[in-house]
Specification:
There is one protein chain. The chain has 241 residues and is mainly β. Helices cover 12% and strands 43% of the residues. It has a twelve-stranded mixed sheet. The chain is globular. The relative contact order is 0.24. The N terminus is likely disordered.
């Protein structure tokens, strides 16, 4: 575990140092263009696998709490139907601070404000005993230049997140076809040091309906007091507020 933590720390710091010292040229993506699929008017949702590594980066607090720092590793899959207000995630989150690991599946249904959670063993289904609304606004982005991942040109896009703007600077690196490749979080200079990187894999610019079908066990769901969304899921959904 100590070796894994050290490797995550080295990778995260190295990426953000290299990223922060790079001289960027003008972005080659017009993110406000309606014929682009980067979250313009044609955006309907997405499906992607991901891996997140965080060393003391601030993330949105759970259940309405203030943003807080996290040291964790997370991997999973997300499918988000923006038009129909449906969200699914399958995740494994290893919280290094508390030395705990969470596995499971979450579903959010925005039209009736419900959230379901099924642990990895799939022996029980929980329904969150509070409104679980999905945000419904498109993210606010600003062009921040361009760079390269290896020798692949990418556009650097700054994320405008009012809730997190006092804590972090956040960017997404997009390929020329509007595929997001890396989501980066860096604590602001006057905050404690911290960084996080989310690498995105197998991204498709549409939701997959198969993921939004609840298992039969959820026909008799057990109430639970608080949301079970993973840290990465909360952070992504926060961009749509």
């Amino acid at each position: 575990m100590k070796l894994l933590f050290s490797l995550i720390l080295i990778f995260t710091i190295a990426f953000n140092v290299a990223y922060s010292t790079k001289t960027f040229s003008t972005s080659n993506i017009n993110i406000n263009s309606e014929n682009q699929s980067c979250f313009g008017s044609s955006f309907v949702g997405f499906t992607t696998s991901y891996i997140t590594n965080s060393i003391n980066a601030f993330f949105p607090g759970s259940n309405g709490q203030e943003p807080e720092q996290h040291i964790f590793y997370e991997s999973g899959l997300i499918s988000y139907d923006f038009d129909n207000q449906l969200f699914f995630s399958n995740f494994m989150e290893n919280d290094i601070k508390t030395n705990t690991t969470s596995f499971g599946y979450t579903w959010l249904f925005g039209k009736n404000n419900t959230e379901y959670y099924v642990p990895k063993d799939q022996t029980v289904c929980y329904i969150v005993d509070q409104d679980a609304s999905l945000p419904s606004k498109l993210p606010s982005f600003s062009p921040a230049g361009s760079s390269e991942i290896g020798n692949t040109p990418v556009s650097v896009i700054s994320i405008n997140d009012p809730e997190m703007s006092k804590y972090t600077a956040e960017t997404i690196l997009f390929a020329s076809d509007c595929t997001p490749m890396i989501y980066s979080v860096s604590n602001l200079e006057f905050q404690p040091m911290g960084n996080a990187v989310t690498n995105l894999f197998y991204y498709t610019p549409s939701p997959l309906p198969v993921y939004f079908q609840l298992p039969p066990i959820c026909n008799d769901a057990t109430p639970i007091g608080s949301s079970k969304l993973s840290t990465t899921s909360r952070s992504i959904l926060n961009k749509f507020k």
